[in-house]
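note to self: dont lose this again. the chain is below, predicted strucutre after it. 263 aa total, dont forget to put it in the shared folder this time
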Amino acid sequence: MGEPENNGLMTVGVFARRAGVSVRTVQYYDLKGLLSPTTKDGNNLRLYSEEDLGCLYRILTLKYLGYSLAEIKAGEGQDDIEELNEALGRRMGELEKESVNILRNITTVQSLQMQLDTSREVDWAHFASQIDEIKNHEDVLWNAMVGDSVEGQPVPGLSREQIMQWHRLMGDTIEVMHAGAAVTDERAQALAIRYEKLGGMTSAMAGLKRLENQRDVGPKEYGRDFYAGLQRRTLSYLQDALDALGNGNESFNDDCAESSGAR
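---
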């Protein structure tokens, strides 16, 4: 037999089941001052409303997005849309950093595996030095996304030098994104200028088109979608930085036009 409801209010057991959490979780949030019952009955039984359920869902959502209970409590009363936008933006930034770290580690391990496959014995000093070199190589992340065959497979409409310039730009951009720099940051603005001089999104799309038919790169558990997603986010970051630069500098468009004419 289920627990009774009281005038549309829920006992803690019903309330917890509705939200898919334990009674102990509800009680813990109550103890922390995050979630109080609407009222208590004559037997001092806590009773919760639909509004309380919305409050609990807010706590669970923000907790999933990485907020501490103290941060959740401090944000009480904030505009819902503003609060969720802020939480999603912060979490996306954290995931960007995590994905770059994962990609860097994947690339390092792949390189070591390739070297081991061609070695007859293990030289630990050599492998340690290779790890240090790979971790600090500017192009390592971009090379991981496009594969090792980029120099051997010319891209229609782009010269080898342009391809290498795109390599360096994308690698540098991922590093700046990894550092959490806003698109208005001077580092992002400098990257935007390089991006525009290389032809912007049109040139980037032409260069990346061949990846649609390229062999999979990276471990199967990540696959092409992982790399394609990072490519899209990197190009989007560059385009946003370019837009921000154009809006903040009246002479920028004239400078770009001159640069385009000089190519």
